[in-house]
Amino acid sequence: MTPFLQLALSLTIIITSAKVGGRIANWLRQPAVLGELLIGVLLGPSLLNLLGQQIFANPHEPDLLHETVFELAELGVICLMFMAGMEIDLEKMLKSGRVSLLAGVSGVLVPLALGWLTASLFGYQGSSALFVGVILTATSVSISAQTLLELGKLRTREGLALLGAAVIDDILVILLLSTFMALTANQAGANSALLVVPLKMAAYLCLATAAGLFLLPRLAAWVDRQPVSEGLASFVVVTALAFAWSAEVVGGLVAITGAFIAGLGFGRSHLHDKIRHSMHTITYAFFVPIFFVNIGLETDLHQLAGSDLPFALVLIAVAIITKVIGCGLGARLGGFANHESLRVGVGMVSRGEVGLIVASVGVAEGIIRTDLFSVVTLIVLATTLVTPPLLRLTYIALPGATSRPDKTKEEAKHA
């Protein structure tokens, strides 16, 4: 088969399997995202190794299909965080600023310290041990955002604080990584990065947020009046991609932060419902299923050596506990009740693509061994899998729901 036909067949299998997995998860009273993630593990190299089958072999470019699916998955997480931004009431989110700040800061410090200590106990030394702690500080709330959408809880106090804390966490992790690299680098001018990086990030956040909140609603209204077929939908897609690109290239942040800011801006438009309907279809029909399944496709548990398994299992426990305690404690200090604080802590557990990005930098710079990347992959998979059911459990088992369900609950349920 040609590469195009291989891609067409692989996407047919991936999207169909994701929807079936999501439906089974709903039948078992679990978030659909959990079923999609488990389907990814089933199709991945740990079990069936879908993309490694002979029918998908390409002797000239053996990694082409894998890379293409990965890039489509990256578009999926951008679309997902854009949708999360659209559902947020900015004024309410700003009211949780103190909680978000404390949860974000403590959710970085606690994993950093205990990750460093754990790595030291397992024989890692110096910068390598510290970098393990840096890896554990990362958080990716795309999984939690989707779970909260399905539960109709994204607009609750906990949901708003969770997203705000994730932004704080994102900023702190990038700053921490940049600081670490500057202090361990030998090149001239490395220490200047300690000042340049935070200034660049702050400038980008201010400019992007101002453009998103004040400019995008006006531009959307103007585009909607133009006689162009699906002009508004195209404008929204292009803008989300542009914000994602600029966040990473210009601001030094991860791309999903820019997509989230773009979603916040369009969410303030009077065309909110029209935009959400257009993006909801393309996001959940195509891109998001690929993103969730691809997490499993990226995981090969066979690469995990037997000697690394105890270290991996301990790190998984540390990764889960430190986020629950760290972020939960910050939320509690910010004034949240115990059950609200627990939900914020659980919602910050998933490491996702951010943890992989940090680990890949460490491998590329020779700070950690390549075999540790397999350990990190297992941590990402484990924390991603446990987050949806744990987050759902905190709403079922604990009293004190803080708001009525979102209007989008039914839509998210059928996504």
3D architecture notes:
- The protein is an all-alpha fold and 415 residues long.
- The protein is built from 17 helices and no strands.
- Helix 6 runs antiparallel to helix 8 (157-184), helix 10 runs antiparallel to helix 11 (255-267) and helix 14 runs antiparallel to helix 16.
Which features does this protein show?
about 425 residues, mainly alpha, 17 helices, disordered C terminus
- Backbone shape: globular
Q: Could you estimate the helical fraction of the residues in percent?
A: over 70%
Described by strand count, sense and barrel closure, the largest sheet is: none
Sequence stretches where pLDDT stays below 50 over 5 or more residues: 401-415
Question: Whole-number average pLDDT?
Answer: 86
Tell me the series of helices and strands, N- to C-terminal: HHHHHHHHHHHHHHHHH
Q: How many H/I helices? A: 17
Cα end-to-end separation: 32 Å
Count of DSSP strands: 0
Content of β-strand: under 5%
Looking at how many chains there are and whether they match, the oligomeric state comes to single chain
Radius of gyration: 21 Å
Q: Helix- and strand-based class?
A: mainly alpha
